[in-house]
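Handout for the seminar on molecular recognition.
Each group receives one record of this type.
Step one: identify the two inputs.
Step two: read the structure output and locate the region that could contact pyridoxal-5'-phosphate.
Step three: write two sentences on what you found, then compare them with the reference statements printed after the record.
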Amino acid sequence: MSLAHGHPYLAIPGPSVIPDRVQRAMHRGSPNIYDGPLHDMVAGLWPDLKALAGTQGHVAGYIANGHGVWEAANANLFSRGDRALVLACGQFGLSWANHARGMGIDVAMLDFGRHAAPDLNRVEAALRADKGYAIKAVLATHVDTSSTVKTDVAALRGVLDAVGHPALLAIDCIASLGCDEYHMDAWGADVTVAASQKGLMTPPGMGFVWFNDRAKAVQADLRTPYWNWNPRCEATEFWQLWCGTAPTHHLYGLREALDMIAEEGLPAIWARHRRLAAAVWAAVEGWGAGNAAIALNVADVAARGCSVTSARFGAPDATRLRAWVEREAGVTLGIGLGMGTEADPQADGWLRIAHMGHVNAHMTLGALAVIEAGLAALGIAHGPGLAAATQVVAG
Ligand SMILES: Cc1ncc(COP(=O)(O)O)c(C=O)c1O
């Protein structure tokens, strides 16, 4: 007998839960792509996407995943041999850097480890040392989904301005857009990348790059026909928007998702994610009070992403717990990613609990409750966590 039968819950940091309304909106035959309702619907997406990122600038859509929009940003920002300063607080920062290197970009890496936000003094020192302004852009993740470290984007802009360095600031919001508070223009980001399968509550397959006029003015010799953002944001014909056939069904899903975001309102969505994240943190801290092996990855509350939480349970308990929770209770938790050490390269001691997008209190408390049941069932020592989480939800 298993208690997993019923509606499974995917508490992983993407693909996130796709709302029924979004699935229904996508469930249709192929539309006419030459003119008519599809064109009208798509025309209405761009202002909503700009509002979501908090920009008056430009946005280009791509049939791509997150790795794809990294490449789109790199291709439009750099020429071969240009320097990028990459700030890494986890696996995804490191991967964006690898992608840049693979494109012939000269990467200067500042690796801040896996447990804390960037040290702004080191960023400042690196920028001050770049007397000739070889650094064309600074690349950083808003929330690195592997470590769940959140970077203060406005503070990064503050450092660039304090140094008077002309480099552009490009932010990966793939795990945070539509979950964590973000204001592209107000915080001084020049470029933002995101993808459809997380806070946008739509299946994987669409990526977006938002950019301002400063970024648009860059002359980049890595700008290949497919990744070139100019024909997409200056399109005079529908096919140019996607450089070919549009991702039709994803677009109908996105329209519904953006309607849901507008109905709830971004401030409420950010507050919901903050509260649910705080409930998850309270549970992990409660469990950890009875077992020093259990702990949140990020100690500083201000540096924690609100859409996913990386926590240590120790090896092999984290892997045993993930397996038990999925097999016996129908909840899939995120694998530990990039948290490895010499001793534990596979990060067996870690797992991630997502609270991203179309998620509510019952889904989050339900996931925490079955984790606590799993700890008990597997004889893993722990303090009371669920009670602390319910207190947070109770407000
Ligand atoms: C912060 C961040 N950047 C980039 C990516 C890569 O995106 P994708 O897996 O869609 O290629 C992810 C995916 O989880 C992510 O969370």
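Reference statements: DSSP finds 16 helices and 14 strands in the chain. Residues 14, 65-67, 92, 141, 144-145, 172, 174-175, 195, 204 surround pyridoxal-5'-phosphate (CB under 6 Å).
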